[in-house]
Amino acid sequence: MLELLKEKIAQQRQLLQTQLSAGMHKTCDQLSLIMGDRAALEDFLQAELNNMPHCKHLYVLDAGAVQLTANIIRTGKDQSHYQRNRSKRSYMQGITAAGDFKLSEAYISKNKKRPSLTAVHVIRNSAVHRVGFLGADSDIRELPHTELLYKQSSAWQQLRGDPSIRQGLFSQQRAESVVDSQIDNVMALMQALILEHGVFHGKLHFSSSRATLWLYDDPYNYRLLSAEELLNPDICLVYPRRAYPEEATIPAERLPEIFDQLKLLRFADENIYLRSGSLNVCNGLLGLNFSCDGSHYMHYTEFLEKDSSFWFGAL
After folding, report:
1. Using CA atoms in the order 238, 243, 245, 246, what is the torsion angle rounded to 10 degrees?
2. Residues 179 and 99 in one domain
3. How many whole angstroms separate alpha carbon 207 and alpha carbon 252?
4. Domain limits for position 307
């Protein structure tokens, strides 16, 4: 999963580098002719900012990375950065090894606390000596993005939680909850809501006897069901009938197996037991949180392949 995410980030960064470097290269050619004139540099950057709609700040540094201009912004000039030494900033490190252009890693900006990027391009004179740098700061939300939405991997992930909970694991025991006492009825109700009433994502909190539901026709608002509601089949009357979604990747006939396995994990051991379990029928993923504060995320096919020895051996 991490490798896929890195790949998508690299693709987006390549897009930004292609779009930003060409324009900055042309600007640097012009800046090299006026490097000794602060007023001319600032006037030129002010005009050039209009050609760089994705940039918030432009500035020029000397060869030692000391700022020769104010920060040029759309409303004028921010003089507070004049003569600022940026040589220690991360985006200035290794720029010569990277070539004449470098796009920083994303960072949280100091003043606005916004995810940001800085692009830096070397300024060279006619003799191709480095005489300075052009810096361009951008707010990530204003940069061009690819139109492809990152798709979460369905590969199994195990995340360990609070170490203090794990250390005290065998000094605690499962306390029977209201849901535990009526587990078969609760499981049947959850399946009915998914199969016939438009719930595409549901999370059952066994220990606290509640559930959270996301409906296909109202995905931006979740519903919280109390223990009393989970034990009342009349709750189905307030959720309109809806066919099982065509987008579901989990076959409807596999749902009973999944809920049987969740029940098994809840009751199989008095020390290590399932505290909550979630199911999304559209992406086919389950989320499991255990008493040891360990969490697992996996595709339903892999989940059904695992028996109790896998879970309690791994934990």
Report:
1. -170
2. no
3. 26
4. 157-314
